[in-house]
Design goal:
Strand content: 5-15%
Distance between the termini: 35 Å
Order of helices and strands: HHEHHEEHHH
Number of helices: 7
Protein name: Transcriptional regulator, MarR family
GO biological process, one term: response to stress
Largest sheet: 3 strands, antiparallel
Number of domains: 1
Helix content: 55-70%
GO molecular function: DNA-binding transcription factor activity
CATH architecture: Orthogonal Bundle
Radius of gyration: 18 Å
Length: about 160
Amino acid sequence: MKRKPSTEATAAWIRLMRVQSRVLDCVEQDLKKAGFPPLAWYDALLELSRAPSGEMRPVELEKQMLIPQYSTSRLIDRLVDEGLAARRECKIDKRGQFVEITEAGRELQKKMWGAYSAAIEKHVGSKLCDADAAKLCGLLDRLGCSCGETQALAARDGAPAR
């Protein structure tokens, strides 16, 4: 028997989608006002910087970022064009390639973190006490978010995972 979601579950879904969209829009605007590229650039550079030896296959980057393949390809093209990443042929599989973060990419990611962390504080941190934020992480964990894992990574790297 297929069950329909409760009114409360549907309301939670709608709020989750709306708040995600609104907060991301606000963060994007704050980065733009600070003179930085879009958040996806930061996310890609962060994932590359966390990878062993600073490189990943494009498909791995796509999985980490949870964006469509065509968006990942265009994003990689932009990062390479700006000198923030480089493509490298896979020596074992000549058809494959790696994307590697450059020193300029590492520097931009570090600079963006200042504006990004301020935006997180402005749009999330200032609205939730730490206990409420922890409670929200617990609720999102139940939906499959793995917030506990991302907190550990953020603490280690001084930067948030999405």
